[in-house]
Amino acid sequence: MSNNLKQDIPIGQNLKNLRRKANLTQRDASAQLEILGISITEDILAKIEQGKYSVRISVLIALKQIYGISSFDAFFEGLHLPTDQS
Question: Whole-model pTM?
Answer without folding.
Answer: 0.82
